[in-house]
Amino acid sequence: DLIFENSASICYVGRGSFNNCHSLAKISFPSPLYSIGNYAFNNCSSLIKVSFPSTLKSIGEYAFMNCSSLTRLSFDQCTSLRRIGRNAFDNCTSLVNVVFSSSITSIGQKAFIKCSSLNKIVLPSSLKRIRKQIIQSTSIEEIIIPSNVRIIDKDAFSEIKSLKKVSFESPSSLYCFRSNIFDRCTSLFEITIPPSVKIIQS
Length: 202
Hints:
Layout: E1 2-3, E2 12-13, E3 26-28, E4 35-36, E5 49-51, E6 58-59, E7 72-74, E8 83-84, E9 97-99, E10 106-107, E11 120-122, E12 129-130, E13 142-145, E14 151-152, E15 165-168, E16 176-177, E17 190-191, E18 199-200
Parallel strand pairs: 1-3, 2-4, 3-5, 4-6, 6-8, 7-9, 8-10, 9-11, 12-14, 13-15, 14-16, 15-17, 16-18
């Protein structure tokens, strides 16, 4: 386990700091922490639980990629968290549920791609753009698009073969669908496009 003492004043965990620590099972971060760097815990295949502090502001690219034993993520206490980098939780194949805080404004492309067990995700209301392949190849059955989202990028929800329903919070601000958003969503049977949408790209 990686445990910081109460007196620890760690503010930043740098790039690749604990990369390939295959026996690391639990992490409890200290309150001063504001940033987790790129690849910081990449390939920690035994990691089961991570406790994030309320002071955290950003999670870097590929920070927890290939953490195949991680089952749940909760950011609801991370009231300062603004950004989750691209591929941050890529291929976390045991991840089932993610809870976001309302402070998050940016979730990078492919942030949860290939999280094949992920069946529930509630996107934060503060999100204005849904990036490319953000939850591609997951097991999600329903997606609710927050009312502040204006753009959904190419392939955002592609290859979610379990996806059945997509709905939009009202009043929707959605203006643009990029191309191939629902490509190969073979179970999708219900979606009502809100009147705010002006562009659906080919």
